[in-house]
Specification:
Layout: H1 14-31, E1 33-37, H2 38-60, H3 64-78, H4 81-91, E2 103-110, E3 117-123, H5 137-204
Antiparallel strand pairs: 1-3, 2-3
Helix pairs in contact: 1-4, 2-3, 3-4
Length: 205
């Protein structure tokens, strides 16, 4: 059974694959960016990132023996002393603050002839901050719900304020109406009393 043997075989033998990855790694270290097929770029990414990890460990090591050990490990895989020296001496300091993700792949399109998917793979600069991360769906939903709640609360507060102002405006109107009704009732009572007095005098006569 072929369990736990999932890797980029690329249709070649083991020694051929290791030589191919070494040559691609040398080209990437020397030039910083290369164009190849998408499958080869995806196979090169974990290979070159392990070599960069060796360079970071060698830079962080205090013992010269450990530094030489990591350098020899890189040379045994890349098979080019000049490229390894350039990576360890010049470019290793660029990746000290970056935890993984030292390469980036761009899809270019299909190659004319066999229509193979082509790609650009490059080493990321130390000053590159990368793409801005999208907010998670849950966080976005929470933010939307909170904004909706605040809007509803603001509307309710505005409605309450308008109701209070309306009630305050209605109060003096009611008082004026009551006073007018009382005056009208008094006048009507006076008129009725005046009418009753002459009627009584006529009856007495």
């Amino acid at each position: 059974m072929r369990h736990s043997k999932r890797r980029h075989s690329l249709g070649v033998s083991g020694p051929h694959l290791s030589a191919m990855m070494g040559n691609l790694a040398v080209a990437l270290i020397t030039h910083g960016r290369i164009q190849t097929t998408l499958t080869k770029a995806k196979a090169l990414r974990p290979f070159i990132e392990k070599i960069i990890t060796f360079a970071k460990k060698a830079e962080a090591a205090n013992d010269t023996a450990r530094k030489l050990h990591y350098r020899r490990l890189a040379i045994s895989r890349v098979r080019d002393k000049k490229a390894v020296a350039k990576l360890f001496d010049e470019r290793a300091s660029e990746f000290t603050d970056r935890n993984g993700g030292y390469t980036r792949i761009y899809k270019v399109g299909q190659r004319i002839g066999d229509a193979a998917e082509m790609a650009l793979i490059e080493l990321i600069d130390g000053n590159d901050e990368g793409y801005s991360k999208k907010p998670a769906k849950k966080a976005a939903k929470k933010a939307i719900n909170q904004a909706a709640k605040t809007e509803v609360e603001v509307k309710e507060a505005e409605v309450a304020e308008t109701e209070v102002t309306e009630t305050e405006a209605k109060k003096p109107v009611k008082k004026v109406a009551k006073k007018a009704a009382k005056k009208a009732a008094k006048k009507a009572a006076k008129k009725a009393v005046k009418k009753e007095i002459p009627a009584k005098e006529e009856t007495d006569v």
